[in-house]
Amino acid sequence: MPMSQAHVHGAGPTGCLAALALAQVGWQVHLYDPLDAPALLGRQRAYALTHSSASLLERLGLWQALAPRLVPFSSLELWDQGTDRQCHFSATDLSPRRHMGGQDIGAPDPTGSARSAGPGSGPDGEAVGWISQHGPLMSLLLEQLRASPQVSLHLGRSASHPEAPGTAPVDLVVAADGSQSPSRQAAGLGWVQRSYDQACLTVQVRLRGSRADQAWELLRPEGPFAVLPLGGDAFQLVWSASARRLRQLESLDGAAFLDQLAGALPDQLQAEVLLDQPRAYPVALGLAWPLAKGSLVLVGDSAHRCHPVGGQGLNLGWRDVACLQQLAGRVTAGRLAPGRLAAAYRWRRWPDLAATLLATHLLVGLFSNRSRLLLPLRRLALDLLNGAPLLRRLSLAAMTQGPCRLWQR
Description:
Blueprint: E1 5-9, H1 13-24, E2 28-33, H2 37-41, E3 46-49, H3 51-59, H4 63-66, E4 70-73, E5 75-80, E6 85-90, E7 99-100, E8 103-104, E9 129-133, H5 134-147, E10 151-155, E11 172-175, H6 182-187, E12 190-208, E13 214-220, E14 223-231, E15 234-241, H7 243-250, H8 254-264, E16 270-274, E17 279-289, E18 292-293, E19 296-298, E20 304-305, H9 313-332, H10 341-367, H11 375-387, H12 389-401
Parallel strand pairs: 1-2, 1-11, 2-10, 5-13, 11-19
Antiparallel strand pairs: 3-9, 4-9, 5-6, 7-8, 12-15, 12-16, 12-17, 13-14, 14-15, 17-20, 18-19
C-alpha cells in the first residue's frame, strides 16, 4: 500500500506539530512556510500549555526534551477585581486519577504505542499547567522536523512556489497558516468573526509579590489580565483593555509604562523592570465553516480565534492536531478511506470548538464590564467555586483538558 501524502501550510507551532503527528502515523509530509527559520524563531512571546497539549507532546515523543525548557505552575489565582472575590485553583483540584487529554497515563495512545509515566510536575506535585517560551519550543520542533525522514521542510517559500515539489494531488492538505489563512481563502471557506471592543498587550517584566510557580487571571472591568510565570521573578503579562488605551501604553517610555502598570496590578504585585517591548494586537472571536473542503482541513488559527482569557487559543489548535493524528492513523491502518478523513475531522472537531469559543466569550462578557446588575451573579459564581470542590475540579478539567472531555469520562 503506498504511503499517504500530506502538505502542511504554515510552520508555526501548530503546523510543525501537525507535520510531526502525521509523520508519526506513517504519512509522508511536505511542510511549507514563506518565512525562513530565523524569522520563525524570532517571535517574542510565551504560551500557556494545558494538560491536553502536554498529552500531545508526550505522544509525539517531545515531552522529555521540552520539559526542562518549560516553567510549571502549581496554582492559579482567579481574582474578580470588580467584586473583590478570589478563587484559588491548585494541583489538588485536578482529577485524583491523572488524565492526560482524557486518557489515563499508561493507557494506549491512538497510534497503538505505550504511554510513558507522563509529563513533569510542579514543585508541589502535579502542575496545573506549563509556560513555554516561543523560541525554545520552535527550536525543538524544527530540530525534530529536520531529523524526521518522513518530513520535507520547505522554509522560505509557500506551497504555491513554482519550485515546490509534489505537484500531483495529495491525500491531505493541512492549513495552519494563521487567521488570515491564504489556504482557507483560496478554498472559498467561510469565516465568521466578531471583533471585541478590546485589544491585548503582551510584555515581559520582572515582578515582585508572586511565587515563581503561581499564575494569575485578573478579571478587571476593562478586560482580563493574565500574569504568567517564566521562571524566577520573570513573568509575561497579557493585558486586555480598549485598543485606544493599549496603543497609548505602547507609545510610553519604560518608566511611564511601569507607572501605568502599577495602577492596573493588585498592590501585592509590583513590576520593577521591563524585559521586552510592549506589543498590542487586536482580538476577535472567529470560526471557519466548514472546517474542511475536499482534501483540505483547517487547524489552529486558520480554523478559529478566541479571546486569550484562560490561554485557550494554542491548546485548542493542538487538540485539532490530536484529532487529525487519530484520523490519519486510521487511514494508515486501513480503517478509514483517505477521502473521508476531512469530513470526519470536520464533524469531530466542532463540539470542542463551539464549547470553548462560547465559554471564553461568556467569561469575557460576564466579567469585563461595569454593570452593577451582573455583580450578584459574579459573586455567586466565585462563591460556588470556592465552596464546592467538585465544581472547582470540573472547571479546572474543562480549562486543562477541553470542555468536551467532561462528557467523555
